[in-house]
């Protein structure tokens, strides 16, 4: 990740975007030496990949099955 100041980012935005597209470079934009923003490439999520947390969930019943009277409980 390259660090640039705001003036440099404003002046070279087009070339920075080209570097991001072609090389996958990323930039940290700073004002007075303090980080303000990250300029990184946009990546679409692959919806066919399994989610690491969600894939650990195990459902051991049929969620579409109707509840029995005992499971519904009494109406108040």
Write a structural description:
This protein is an alpha+beta fold and 76 residues long. The protein has a domain at 1-42: YefM-like domain (YefM-like fold). It is 28% helix and 20% strand. It has a 3-stranded mixed sheet. The longest helix has 11 residues, at 13-23. It starts with a strand and ends with a helix.
User: Going across the major beta sheet, what is the strand order?
Assistant: 1-2-3
Order of helices and strands: EHHEEH
CATH topology of the domain at 1-42: YefM-like fold
- Please tell me what the overall shape is: elongated
The pLDDT mean sits at: 89
Computed Rg: 25 Å
What separation lies between the terminal Cα atoms? 61 Å
In CATH, the homologous superfamily of the domain at 1-42 goes by the name YefM-like domain
User: Per DSSP, what share of the residues sits in E-state strands of 2 or more residues?
Assistant: 15-25%
Secondary-structure arrangement, i.e. CATH architecture of the domain at 1-42: 3-Layer(aba) Sandwich
